[in-house]
Design brief:
443 residues, alpha/beta, 4-stranded mixed sheet, 43% helix
Length: 443
């Protein structure tokens, strides 16, 4: 089955508006009221809101329906499936937490975990609850780190794991006399300049994409020593380290000119297409194999390497090359069939289902034992596994995290627009955008 990378990345789209509007949002329809009372009288029905992981909603139905049928055969519990687009999912969830009427089980973007945890609408996974789904130790520590605020019982369990890496076009590299992918930003810029010629560019960027921008902002921030929230969870967006990090990212277009000015308008997967069609030689993305093949590339046309690091680690900088990306599985606290919902969570995170589902979506299992399957040992996925294990960090698990993504992503969108129009990207200009984003967060 095919998977569409952008569908995964849209999980943070328009989050600030959703959080502000939750009180007035219309009640979501769902299965929470259809499952009946608890105990032996509980009807054998669950409602599941699945996130759109495949190229289309129909692809998701094709992937999931046989597995839900298998669950019904094993347990007698029928699962009513609704695949919810990322553009609607957060609004639907927030409305359901307000009304108390939602599904029994649902997918959430893992970066939302702390924000949704703060609503009180999700079932906490304490030790007893983890035991009911097979035990906490089955899950990868890196994936568990993005399931809720530190020191609190997780609000969900991981089901699909993802990370960022650098894709590079092997032929374009060879034609330019470049033998290896860049390991540092200095090397990437030097390589990018060799590759930027004849209407082609060294790097493709999704400059108008709010989620893409916020994810790269986090990674650059970590590398340059910027923490966007202090130890108490207070936002600190415009520190000198954050200004330096954001400027370094935008300068790939503004100063170094290895990304095309038109990239400032990209927000719908155009950077993946530019990479696949040879208009750009490099791309920083999550698992993109299926999309690249759909767009005409063949396995072997590209290579995958970790996202570069600064040649000299800045003060307080961390060797982080990706956020811990992925999807979590949560249970609504208002479910009338808690036991059935937890049986479903146990089923979906079992070794067998982890292998089936993650093979279909070209993602990585969040269960350590399932990752040992040879299907997850391709050269590409080996890189993603190494990144998740050694150089990925969770986005800040604070209640305001969702707003952070929207505001910082929007600030970078504005800076890329300036860069594309030829306006100078100075430290003062970057700081002004970050200060404005921080003020909006405070408001």
């Amino acid at each position: 089955m095919q998977t569409h990378p952008l569908s995964r990345l849209r999980r943070t789209w328009a989050v600030t508006a959703a959080l502000i509007a939750v009180v007035t949002a219309p009640a979501a329809c769902g299965g929470g009221t259809e499952t009946g009372g608890g105990g032996n009288d509980a009807p054998k029905t669950l409602t599941y809101w699945a996130s759109n992981q495949g190229a289309t909603i129909e692809v998701d139905k094709q992937v999931l329906t046989p597995e839900l049928t298998k669950f019904e055969q094993q347990t007698g519990i029928k699962v009513k499936l609704e695949v919810v687009p990322w553009t609607d999912l957060l609004n639907r969830i927030l409305a359901a937490t307000t009304s108390g009427q939602g599904p029994d089980v649902l997918n959430i973007g893992n970066t939302w975990s702390a924000s949704l945890q703060a609503t009180g609408g999700l079932l906490p996974f304490d030790q007893k609850t983890f035991d009911q789904v097979g035990g906490k130790n089955r899950f990868l520590p890196s994936a568990l780190a993005s399931t809720g605020a530190p020191g609190k019982d997780p609000a969900a369990v991981p089901i699909y794991s993802m990370a960022y890496a650098l894709y590079y076009n092997k032929k374009m590299f060879a034609d330019a006399g470049i033998e290896n992918p860049p390991a540092t930003w200095e090397e990437l810029i030097a390589d990018g300049k060799k590759l930027t010629k004849g209407g082609k560019h060294g790097l493709a960027i999704e400059g108008a994409s709010i989620p893409e921008n916020s994810h790269h902002a986090f990674v650059f921030g970590q590398q340059y020593g910027a923490d966007f929230f202090d130890a108490a969870g207070k936002p600190q967006f415009d520190t000198p380290q954050a200004v330096t990090a954001m400027k370094a990212y935008v300068d790939l277009m503004a100063k170094e000119k290895i990304a095309a000015p038109g990239n400032a308008e990209y927000s719908a997967n155009q950077s993946v297409k530019d990479f696949a069609t040879g208009k750009a030689a490099m791309l920083m993305w999550q698992t993109a194999e299926s999309s690249l093949i759909d767009l005409g590339m063949k396995p072997g046309d590209w290579g995958v390497a970790p996202v570069p690091l600064p040649a000299q680690t800045p003060p307080d900088g961390k060797k982080i090359t990706s956020l811990v990306a992925g999807i979590n599985l949560a249970v609504f606290k208002s479910t009338k069939n808690k036991d059935g919902a937890l049986k479903f969570v146990k089923f979906m995170t079992s070794d067998e289902e982890q292998k089936i589902l993650n093979k279909a979506y070209k993602s990585l299992p969040s269960v350590a034992s399932a990752q040992q399957d040879p299907a997850f040992s391709t050269p590409d996925l080996q890189v993603f596994k190494q990144v998740l294990a050694g150089s990925a960090a969770p986005l800040p698990m604070v209640p305001q995290e969702s707003q952070f993504e929207t505001l910082i992503g929007g600030a970078l969108k504005n800076l890329f627009a300036d860069a594309a129009s030829g306006k100078p990207i100075t430290e003062e200009r970057v700081k002004a955008e970050l200060t404005e984003a921080q003020q909006k967060m405070a408001g």
